[in-house]
UniProtKB/TrEMBL annotation:
<dbReference type="InterPro" id="IPR002177">
    <property type="entry name" value="DPS_DNA-bd"/>
</dbReference>
<dbReference type="InterPro" id="IPR008331">
    <property type="entry name" value="Ferritin_DPS_dom"/>
</dbReference>
<comment type="similarity">
    <text>Belongs to the Dps family.</text>
</comment>
<dbReference type="InterPro" id="IPR009078">
    <property type="entry name" value="Ferritin-like_SF"/>
</dbReference>
<dbReference type="GO" id="GO:0008199">
    <property type="term" value="F:ferric iron binding"/>
</dbReference>
<dbReference type="InterPro" id="IPR012347">
    <property type="entry name" value="Ferritin-like"/>
</dbReference>
<dbReference type="Pfam" id="PF00210">
    <property type="entry name" value="Ferritin"/>
</dbReference>
<feature type="domain" description="Ferritin/DPS">
    <location>
        <begin position="19"/>
        <end position="155"/>
    </location>
</feature>
<protein>
    <submittedName>
        <fullName>DNA starvation/stationary phase protection protein</fullName>
    </submittedName>
</protein>
<dbReference type="InterPro" id="IPR023188">
    <property type="entry name" value="DPS_DNA-bd_CS"/>
</dbReference>
<dbReference type="GO" id="GO:0016722">
    <property type="term" value="F:oxidoreductase activity, acting on metal ions"/>
</dbReference>
């Protein structure tokens, strides 16, 4: 393959891609968790939560593709297995099927974790003068901050 010459050193591209890999793993793990909760939610808020979770996992599905494509743009292979995601993700797996309010709490925690992952990845992108990755990460951070706020509001 032809060498990459986009004005970012190979060392910086690899460091930025590592932060993006962590963001990808967290996003994919939260996608799976949200989809699981969409399938299994019960209770008086069933319809509202079922539809909201669908909106969230649909948005996350688009996000994981965008993040993976940015990693590839930097010339690094994107992780794509459960094993790789488990090793990179900061979001813990959920055992069983929690109650609806616990689902909301867990998803809030997951979105907040992704915001923290974004902050770390953003610093790497800024250090490497990678405005494209910084913009992507900043957009993701804003989305997760807003989603966490809305989920927290549901908890009272």
């Amino acid at each position: 393959m032809q060498p990459i010459n986009i004005g970012i050193t190979e060392t910086d591209r690899e460091a930025i891609a590592h932060g993006l890999k962590q963001l990808l793993a967290d996003s994919y793990t939260l996608y799976l968790q949200t989809h699981n909760f969409h399938w299994n939610v019960t209770g008086p808020q069933f319809r509202e939560l079922h539809l909201m979770f669908e909106e969230h996992y649909t948005e996350l599905a688009t996000a994981v593709d965008d993040i993976a494509e940015r990693i590839r743009t930097l010339g690094v292979a994107a992780p794509g297995t459960y094993k790789a995601f488990a090793a990179l993700s900061s979001i813990e797996e959920v055992e069983g099927v929690p109650e609806a309010s616990e689902m909301i709490r867990l998803l809030t925690t997951g979105h907040e974790q992704i915001v923290r992952t974004c902050r770390s990845a953003l610093a790497r992108a800024q250090q490497g003068d990678d405005e494209s990755s910084a913009a992507l990460i900043s957009d993701r951070m804003r989305q997760h901050e807003k989603t966490a706020w809305m989920l927290r509001a549901m908890l009272g």
